Structures are given as C-alpha cells and as structure tokens.
Amino acid sequence: MDELKNLETLGLTLPSPAYIFAAILFGIIGIAAYRYGKKSALAIPRWLGIALMLYPYVVSETWQLYVIGGGLCAALYVYRK
Fold first, then answer.
1. Are 47 and 36 in contact (CB under 8 A)?
2. pLDDT at site 42
3. What DSSP string describes the chain?
C-alpha cells in the first residue's frame, strides 16, 4: 500500500479497469484494421488502424477513450470499401 501512496505523491494514478479494457480492445481492433488495410492495399483503413493503436497513449480520461475509439471504429466501418 505504501507504493500506491508514493505514486500519488508523484502525481501518478493507476488507470481504471475500464480504461485498460478499452485500450486493449481498441488496440486489437487497430491491429486488425492495419493488417486488413495492408493486405488489401487500402490507405485509409491502415491509417485508422495506426490511430486506433496509438491514441490511448495521449488520452487520459476514460470517457474520451471510448468516444474517440468509437469514432475511429465508425470511420473504419464507413471507409472499409
């Protein structure tokens, strides 16, 4: 328990389980989209896959993670060709 107090004094907090679940889920979807885009030589699904894999590193709020991930997945659905 002392380790958690030390993290809090440094200004660091651990992510919630919902955040970790969403980061893993959207990362897996991003890998699949990237591989699909690369296999079919489509640039938009490939770049959306890269975005899905990388955006959790810059988003800190759980609700933002779900909103942005949902938007990127919707864009992937629209531009799947």
1. no
2. 92
3. -HHHHHHHHTT--PPPHHHHHHHHHHHHHHHHHHHHHHHTT-HHHHHHHHHHHHGGGT--SHHHHHHHHHHHHHHHHHT--
